[in-house]
Design brief:
The complex is a heterodimer of chains A (115) and B (174).
Chain A (H helix, E strand, L loop, with lengths): L2 H27 L8 H21 L6 H36 L6 H8 L1
Helix pairs in contact in A: 1-2, 1-3, 2-3
Chain B lengths: L1 H15 L12 H13 L9 H28 L8 H21 L5 H8 L1 H22 L11 H15 L5
The chains are: A mainly alpha (115), B mainly alpha (174).
Chain lengths: 115, 174
């Protein structure tokens, strides 16, 4: 398979793994009596495991599940950090709008000022 | 392993900060995030592959991100959204944001457009997992049986609610 295509696949799998692991941690740490995390946790863990096996199959340097997990998490985090600037630019647009927008007059607040 | 312990602490800290029935845990948010950040970003001589590549990316990321975050906070403080504009904060914030953009190009000049496109494909993985999670949660919510209708408030409870509302709107018995 094309080396670039395999790289793309690693990053897609990495993004999937890091996002799922984050959601798994989130569900465990923020557990409360009204949450039902058992089925999502189980299915997400299985899907992460499948991704780890795919990485082992694709990469000859990756031989065990733990290394595959570290590899996937690293790829995912590298991807996350690399795409952040795009969102940063988007946030700058909203920040610019907030900087130039003038405060709207609130009749209720004006009444408070009059007192 | 230090880097993954840091990652676990940061994600746990962010999760503690959520609203809802587990809100009492949000007092641990900041300590967990600070501890996790220290664990993740402090140099560790034992770091090998694959974390070494990640650390290099993080060290190129931190300068512009921290600068940008500082500028972002200053602009928000100076923006006229809820109060009068604070011009010094606003101008200094935008200057710091411009510095952060310069730092981004300074530290990431080695990135080619092709590599950025390849790395950005992780966004697809993240989106797939989020959609997958939303479907899972929807399935679980739909399969949870509805609880019985809540019984009507007793006279004592009604009086209690009335007292609270009266006290808050400043009418009734003082």
């Amino acid at each position: 398979m094309n080396a670039d295509l395999i790289e793309v696949l690693y990053f897609i799998l990495g993004g999937f793994i890091i996002s799922n692991i984050s959601l798994i941690i989130f569900q465990i740490v923020s557990y409360h009596p009204y949450s039902r995390p058992l089925i999502p946790l189980f299915i997400q863990s299985i899907s992460v495991l499948v991704c780890l096996v795919i990485i082992i199959e694709l990469n000859v340097e990756v031989t065990d599940l733990l290394y595959s997990l570290r590899f996937g998490l690293s790829q995912g985090l590298i991807g996350f950090v690399t795409i952040l600037p795009f969102f940063y630019v988007l946030m700058l647009y909203f920040l610019f709008r907030a900087s130039t927008r003038s405060r709207q007059l609130d009749p209720l607040l004006a009444l408070l000022d009059d007192e | 392993m230090q880097i993954w312990l840091g990652f676990f602490l940061i994600v746990s800290g962010i999760s503690f900060g959520r609203m809802g029935p587990s809100f009492k845990r949000n007092q641990y948010t900041l300590p967990f995030i600070i501890l996790g950040t220290l664990c993740m970003f402090l140099p560790n001589s034992n770091t090998g592959e694959p974390e070494l590549a990640l650390l290099n990316v993080i060290y190129d990321f931190l300068p512009w991100f921290t600068t940008g975050f500082l500028g972002y906070c200053l602009v928000l403080m100076g923006a006229p959204t809820y109060w009068k504009a604070r011009v010094p904060q606003l101008i200094s914030g935008w200057i710091i944001i411009l510095v952060s953009i310069y730092l981004y190009f300074e530290y990431n000049s080695h990135l080619s457009p092709k590599s950025v496109i390849i790395i950005s494909s992780s966004l697809l993985g993240i989106l797939i997992s989020l959609i997958f999670f939303a479907f899972l949660v929807r399935y679980v919510e739909n399969s949870t049986p509805l609880e019985d209708e809540t019984p009507e408030l007793t006279d004592k409870e009604k009086e209690f609610v009335r007292d609270i509302i009266s006290k808050n709107i400043g009418v009734g018995n003082e």
